[in-house]
Amino acid sequence: MQAVIITTEHYHTTCWEKAFAPVLVSTTWQKNSPAQTTPIFIYHKVKDWEQAVRELSLHHNVIVLSSQLTLSELQSALSLGAKGYMDAAAGIASYQAAATAIGQGALWVPPAILEQLSKFLTTHLNKQYQAQVAHPDLTKRENEVMLLAKQGLTNKEIAGTLFISERTVKQHLTATFAKLGIKDRLQLILHT
């Protein structure tokens, strides 16, 4: 598999030659290079790397290389048109896997960044979801019990999840039903 690496004069790794044959390593880029399927890796410290990604990604599969992976840089790279983002110090297998993935139309994001992103989204979306579905007339705990009941959990499962007794779950559900003017779990599930 061939590859093009655009880097600075000060950053080079023999990993590139081992991962790709042939590999073209350059410190410059050309705006009007012909379209090709060869992946282009652009080191994030190259002068005007953002412009290079924007221009080259119009006709090429581009992966941004970074010496310090961050969610904000990932967001910038993808919004500029890059198909991937990875650690510049990654191993041969990672370079090859990234090139193969983007060649098949997938995005390439390192597992460490995916884990950070997953944690952020889970926390953020969970808080956002709970804020949207929380009923203002219910206490915080009643809202928690209501959300779990709407997901179909039994009283015992709700009790285990929230570390409370089943009797307390029943009390919260009874109070919730009264405040919302409903009679049972089915109405609770249908209640918006």
UniProtKB/TrEMBL annotation:
CDD domains the UniProt entry points to: LuxR_C_like (cd06170)
SMART domains: HTH_LUXR
DNA-binding as UniProt keyword: yes
Alphabetized GO MF terms: DNA binding
Keywords assigned by UniProt, alphabetized: DNA-binding
Pfam families registered for this protein in UniProt: GerE (PF00196)
Entry-linked InterPro entries: Sig_transdc_resp-reg_C-effctor, Tscrpt_reg_LuxR_C, WalR-like
GO biological process: one example: regulation of DNA-templated transcription
Record has DNA-binding as a keyword: yes
Record domain HTH luxR-type: where: 131-192
Name this polypeptide is given: Putative two-component system response regulator
